[in-house]
Predict the structure.
Amino acid sequence: MAYPANKILINAVSGIGENLLLVPALRVLRDHYPQARITMAVRSPAAAILLKNGDLVDEIIACDYKIQDSLMKKISLIARLRKERFDISITAFPSNRLDKAIFSWLSGARVRIFHDHGGIITGLLRFMNNIYVPVDFKAHDIEQNLNLLTPLGIDICKSDRDPYLRISEEAEKDAAAFLEKQGINGPDIFALHPGSSADLGMKNRRWPLARFKALAESIIEKYAGTVLVFLGPDEADLVFDINHTRIFFVRERIDVATALIKKCRLFIGNDSSLMHIAAISGIPTIGIFGPANPSRTGPRGPKAQVITGRSGCSPCYSFEDLGKPIVCKAGLECLNSISVEDILALAQKIQ
């Protein structure tokens, strides 16, 4: 069934990586509703920086408990959304959280599309949304989000499933200035990211920091290149002692970091937003996976690869665990079993 719409709300109050895996669905939605005003609600201001340069959405609103940190601010946000009189609200995957269901309901949209995760919670909250799409438990998050468009009469079978990012000229200039200031030039620049989100126990996605240090040193010895170690705003504790003058720590805005990553020969990092950015940018990318399932959130790109450990219990973070902390009782054997040599061997193959 087709639904006419002048205003559409995308409820994507999730991590930055999850926002990036929504891009193919946004592209299809924009093609289907070229004249509609599309508003996207995201959790992180950094996600807003990344997505604002494209033509897929008209407005991005940062909705974070750290921003709307009082009852009055939350009420003000909901009042602002209801004033828009949205025709359609689409809640991006994953959506099995009470706050997302309430957000969709309070938006006041006439058509509210949500995933049916099954279980008691979905049943109790069913009145909050009026169109439900079954979760495909074997699908990647990109496909989960595309499936949300089918109730609108959109044929997703021929859709382009690769995300993409458009970086501003300002970010490109700032990246070039960073490289010039550090005296970095040439094609042999390698990117490492030892961090990840710290929310919900996601530090348990991180490969040991000591191995990232050993990997950086091995890359310099093997390729005589330069290593950029990217750190997020809350990852100062991941700075390690360096024995080389060709290792640089990067703590730039996310759009500048993206522009820098695009200049690299290879990216190696944990399951994080920067991993997705690298894969989307088309550079050879190695995503290191432990508890999480790469078949659901693995990097998508022409030169993206995943490495997993030799552990019988991995992946252990399933659909039923979405929204819950990552807890490991096996000492993160899945990540600890991945050696520096394993990474270097895969890097040799994909470059």
Q: What stands out?
A: The radius of gyration is 21 Å. The first helix runs from residue 16 to 20. The longest strand covers residues 7-12. The mean pLDDT is 89.
